[in-house]
Amino acid sequence: MKASAPGKIILFGEHAVVYGRPALAIPVTQVHADVEILDSSRAGIWIQAPDVNLHVELNTLPSDHPLAAVIHNFLFLFRVTPFPNLEIKISSTIPVASGLGSGAAVTVALTRALSSFLARPMPDEEVNAFAYEIEKLHHGTPSGIDNTVVTYAMPVYFVKQFSSPFGRGTRGEGIETFRVGTPFTIVIGDTGISAPTKESVGDVRKLWEADKTKWENVFDRVGKIVEEARKNIESGKWELLGELMDQNHNLLQEMTVSSPELDRLVSAARSAGALGAKLSGGGRGGNMIALVNVNLAELVAQSMLEAGAQRVIITQVS
Ligand code: PMV
What we know:
Largest sheet: 7 strands, mixed
Number of helices: 9
Radius of gyration: 20 Å
Shape: globular
Order of helices and strands: EEEEHEHHHEEEHHHHEEHE
Bound molecules: (3R)-3-hydroxy-3-methyl-5-(phosphonooxy)pentanoic acid
Strand content: 15-25%
Number of strands: 11
């Protein structure tokens, strides 16, 4: 039994989304997490995740380890007793801690593989709610955007829900997909620096706590950029997104979540002819994105590599 889930990238609105402003994100299908489950002849639930050098029996993992949490919670939720003997193979081409949603993708693929293998069907909204609970172990206070895009594998306009008894945006509330009027191209550049989202989110919280009026105002400005970006995407005026990306990047710099490496890739992309560029995700490291005319994509990607990107992905948003 096999299941797969894509990576994701945030186009606009990271960080402010934690404070109730909207964000836009899309799946990135060029990278993915894959899980295979097989019956096992040896006792126990054996996990093989060679990418992270993990070859263990479930019970030897700490209970708050995200993989252990997915499996334990799943077996508990569906009252699977006695525990089956399983061989679980996990692999992923999504770089870890870089803003491409690797944690959420592994969780969603593993949940779906368990659901199929153990014949416990789960609709998307349940997979999403389940994955959100696991995201809390990765992130602390996640908005829920990662698990949502990865679960539905569609472009998402996301607003965190504060009052839902089921959690945030986990039952379909606050989740809207949006239409892409005319497909457009972005280049994703990875700084190769892994930066835990939990830390940058925590630092932004400290800034906000010290001066709520100032930061609420900054988040409002991000929210306006997101609304305008959505309108332009829907009406096919994608060229106008470049300027909005630049504005969003400036506000993220103000939030202290950019870094010299990210800024270098952003500048290189702009100099090579990108219409705009910004960091994407938690920041401090991880990825940035650049909006390009399709005929310039290779050139911009090359300049980003020369400016230090460890890898680049050219992807079409459609
Ligand atoms: O680093 P990523 O792509 O997982 O995204 C984090 C996005 C934040 O807005 C910074 C945090 C969140 O939970 O939405």
